[in-house]
Amino acid sequence: MLNKFLASRLAYFVGFFASFGLVALALVIQTQYKLEPCPLCISQRIVFIGLGVLFLIAAIHHPQKPVWVKLYALLQTLTALGGAGVAIRHWYLQVHKDEMLVDCGVGFDYMFDNFPLRKALTLVFRGTGDCATIDWTFLGLSIPQLALIAFLTVAGYSVLLAKKRI
User: Fold this and answer.
1) What pLDDT, on the 0 to 100 scale, is given for residue 71?
2) Beta bridge partner(s), residue 141
3) Beta bridge partners of 142
4) The domain containing residue 86 runs over which residues?
5) Of 5, 48, 71, 155, which is the most buried if we count CB atoms within 10 A?
6) pLDDT tens per residue across span 100-147
């Protein structure tokens, strides 16, 4: 039964809903606890949105040929691993906040309104200041730690989908 599910179009839709569900959860946590996301938090959300879009495209396409299945798995896995890298950087800043001068600087909106795209993206991925603050935890894990687990789970899920479809 599991093999039948993993070979179905629904399996890609699950990846889509999980990715966008995590973004929705982040927004709920943000509004519920009146938190201000840092550039790295926003970057992780963007990666989850990108993953959701990749899963949605795969669900609509419903690839049957191994080359397409492998391509989607590669794109999804690389995107998830990129998000894991951002989460690891965020976690690193939190762990080493006492050892470094950290200053998040200006807000995300301000950066993209007042700087060229390349400069704004550089500032977003620099990740300082507010990025080192742990404002919320669940089961003793901070948001970047939870995001890292989610990114690695999604990467594993995309590899599993590919293995069951080929």
Assistant:
1) 96
2) 138
3) 137
4) 2-165
5) 48
6) 665 454 556 666 677 787 777 666 655 444 777 888 889 999 999 999
We report the CATH number of the domain holding residue 70 as 1.20.1550.10
CA dist 139 → 41, 100, 143, 149 (Å): 19, 27, 11, 13
CA dihedral (22, 26, 31, 37) in degrees, to 10, reads: -150
State how far the Cα of 19 lies from the Cα of 29, in Å rounded to an integer. Answer: 16
SS3 content of the chain, % helix, strand, coil (to 5): 75, 0, 20
Tokens of 15: 């990846």
Q: Whole-model pTM above 0.90?
A: no
Total domains in the chain come to 1
Residues 6+ apart with CB under 8 A from 137: 143
- Report the distance separating Cα 45 and Cα 76, nearest Å: 15
Report pLDDT for 116: 82
Rounded-to-integer distance, Cα 91 and Cα 131, Å? 9
16: left (phi over 0), alpha (psi -120 to 50) or beta: alpha
How does pLDDT run across 71-104, given as a tens digit for each residue? 999 999 999 999 999 999 989 888 888 776 654 5
